[in-house]
Structure formats: structure tokens, C-alpha cells
Design a protein that fits this description.
Elements: E1 11-12, H1 52-75, H2 88-91, H3 94-102, H4 105-111, E2 120-123, H5 127-146, E3 161-163, H6 170-188, E4 199-208, E5 215-219, E6 224-231, E7 234-236, E8 239-244, E9 259-262, E10 268-273, E11 276-280, E12 283-296, H7 298-304, H8 315-321
Parallel strand pairs: 1-5
Antiparallel strand pairs: 2-10, 3-4, 4-12, 5-11, 6-10, 6-12, 7-12, 8-9, 8-11
Bound molecules: 2-oxoglutaric acid (AKG) and fe (ii) ion.
Length: 322
């Protein structure tokens, strides 16, 4: 448990401006020896703003994103076409479907647990869905390898993963967000714009011996984050949480009651504020793959520009008020 991680300067994780062979029976879904198909680390490669070469680099980048998407659209053959349409009863566990259909706050509260304030946990995906998405990701990596395509990273901190919209899953994920995540974030996180979520960035991340082991301490570029473990078999990989902070207090140490480590379970989702500081401990063996949705509210962002000084949701501001 890296308590000392709270002493490190925290990173703010940004969406990459990407805008953008599996074996179903036995054996790992993601081939452990898959050659590297992910982008190189490109931290600090951005030229200074205002420099003429920065405009050139930007237009090169936009061009390569366009080509990347075009190449996927024209040549990627999905393995599970049924993943591209949201089939609620086929994908989601009955308890979640019932709670959302009931349309009451009590119904939703019955299926969640909140082991530490602001961490909402509930069962979400059926094992069949997790398996299909893992296989689709494996298939996508295989295609990238065969076509010599470099998979674009999902965010600035992490390169082992893929953006779900790039695979063609934006409609399915959009429906999931609107019908399931929005009702929940409306109940649990209205004070950070959880009730006005209007866009999302969805992606897959992968950890294991041949990829990354852990994810550094950070906050997300989101108002509310949904994080669902898809599998497979692994040890470690706990999500560590260290309190919610506004910009001013981002690096203020955690109190004991803000420290919580959550052991990830396939099919189970966690929902938390984007400003809830967190990271992932080392996946010490096996492979772990998670699906993330960074949910955003343009209204909340607009209003935050004239932000009141002490938002109620920041652990330090709340302490200072009392
Ligand atoms: O690996 C995890 O479970 C955490 C991922 C995460 O925090 C993120 O991608 O923002
Ligand atoms: Fe995160």
C-alpha cells in the first residue's frame, strides 16, 4: 500500500486528443507474448507553444489521427459484432437492470456498497460480456500487429490500451452512459456535475508482465469515472484511493480516513469522482484488463471557471469550513 504515494506530486491525467489471437476456450485471451503494438512513451515531446514547429507538429498529429481512424474503419474486422449494439439484458447483470428500471433512488441504493465515502461499487457486466470485450481487444491487437498499425494511447499517462470509439463502440458506450451511468451519477455525485454528464471518453487499459504493472497516483480528466474490471486472472492491481481534492488542494496529504485500497473483481464496477485521487497498485502476476469511462459535464466545466473558492466536495475545503 504506497502510503508514501501521497507525498509524490500528483498527476492530472488527460484524455489524449485522439478524439480518438484470442482463444475463447482456455488459455489467456490476450496472448502474453503479443509484440508491442502500442504507442511509444511520448511524455515531454510537445514543442513549446507559439513555436512555428508546434503548428507543424500539431497538423502532423491531426493527420495521423485521421489516417489511424480511416485505416480501422476500412480494414478492421470485428470479432463480435454484437458488441457494437447495446443489448442490455445480454450484457448487464439482472440486479442492475432491475434497479435502473425501478427508477427510484432506493432501488439503486439497494444494489451498491460504499466502503469509503465516494466509492460506489456494484455488479455490472455478465461474464459473457467481459469475455467478449476481452476477445475483441485481443482481436484488435492482433489486427494492429498484422497491419503494422500502432494503437493510439487512451490518455497521456498510459499507453497500453485502446479507445473504445476507435474500435467503433461509441453508440454502445453512449447508451450505457445515458441509461445507466447518468442515473447513478445523478444520485451520488450531483455536486460535481454528475447530473449533467453530456460526453465521455471510453477506453480499455491492460496490465501484466509484458505491459505496465501499475498506474501512478493521479486525478482523471472527468467529473465522474466508471471503472469496470473485465478480468482476466491476476494478483494485485488494487485501486488505491486517497481523498477528493480541488485544484488548490491537489497535493495536500490524505487523512487516515481517506485512505482506501479496493481489490478489483471481474464484472464489478466502481464509480467515483474524477477528482478522487487514485492509482493502481502493481498487478503482480497474470493479466488485468479494465474498461474506463471518463464522464464529463460541459455545464459543470463552464460553471467551474468562476469556481467558488471552497467546493463542498473537496476534503480539505470541507475540513477548513468546519
Ligand atoms: O487500472 C485501474 O484500475 C485504474 C485506471 C485509471 O485510474 C484510469 O485509467 O484513469
Ligand atoms: Fe484514473
Amino acid at each position: 500500500m504506497p502510503l508514501n504515494s501521497t507525498n509524490k506530486k500528483i498527476k492530472i491525467e488527460y484524455e489524449e486528443e485522439n478524439a480518438s489471437s484470442s482463444n475463447p476456450r482456455g488459455g489467456p485471451v490476450i496472448p502474453p507474448m503479443m509484440p508491442n503494438v502500442f504507442e511509444d512513451n511520448k511524455d515531454d515531446v510537445k514543442p513549446p507553444v507559439g513555436n512555428s514547429s508546434s503548428a507543424d507538429a500539431e497538423s502532423e498529429r491531426v493527420k495521423s489521427i485521421r489516417e489511424y481512424k480511416q485505416r480501422i474503419r476500412s480494414s478492421y474486422q470485428p470479432m463480435h459484432r454484437e458488441l457494437f449494439e447495446m443489448n442490455f439484458t445480454g450484457f448487464l447483470v439482472p440486479s442492475l437492470l432491475e434497479a435502473i428500471n425501478e427508477s427510484t433512488e432506493n432501488g439503486v441504493r439497494r444494489i451498491i456498497s460504499e466502503p469509503t465515502p465516494g466509492l460506489i461499487i456494484f455488479d455490472m457486466f455478465k461474464p459473457e460480456f467481459c469475455q467478449m470485450l476481452l476477445e475483441e481487444f485481443g482481436n484488435f491487437k492482433k489486427w494492429a500487429w498484422e497491419t503494422k498499425t500502432i494503437i493510439m494511447r487512451p490518455n497521456t499517462m498510459y499507453r497500453y490500451g485502446a479507445v473504445l470509439a476507435d474500435l467503433g463502440m461509441e453508440t454502445m458506450i453512449g447508451k450505457l452512459m445515458k441509461d445507466f451511468i447518468l442515473p447513478m451519477s445523478t444520485i451520488f455525485f450531483p455536486e460535481v456535475g454528475g447530473d449533467t454528464i453530456d460526453s465521455y471518453h471510453g477506453f480499455i487499459v491492460e496490465y501484466g508482465a509484458d505491459t505496465a504493472h501499475h498506474l501512478d497516483f493521479h486525478v482523471d480528466d472527468s467529473e465522474v469515472t466508471l471503472n469496470v474490471c473485465l478480468g482476466e486472472k491476476f494478483y494485485g492491481g488494487e485501486l488505491f484511493l486517497r481523498g477528493v481534492r480541488c485544484v488548490k488542494h491537489l497535493n495536500v496529504d490524505s487523512e487516515l480516513k481517506e485512505i482506501f485500497d479496493y481489490s478489483q473483481v471481474p464484472g464489478r464496477a466502481v464509480l467515483h469522482r474524477g477528482r478522487h485521487r487514485h492509482g493502481a497498485l502493481s498487478t503482480t502476476s497474470g493479466h488485468r484488463v479494465n474498461m474506463l469511462l471518463w464522464c464529463k459535464s460541459s455545464i459543470f466545466r463552464e460553471m467551474s471557471k468562476e469556481e467558488q473558492n471552497s467546493p463542498s466536495w473537496c476534503g480539505v475545503c470541507r475540513r477548513e469550513e468546519n
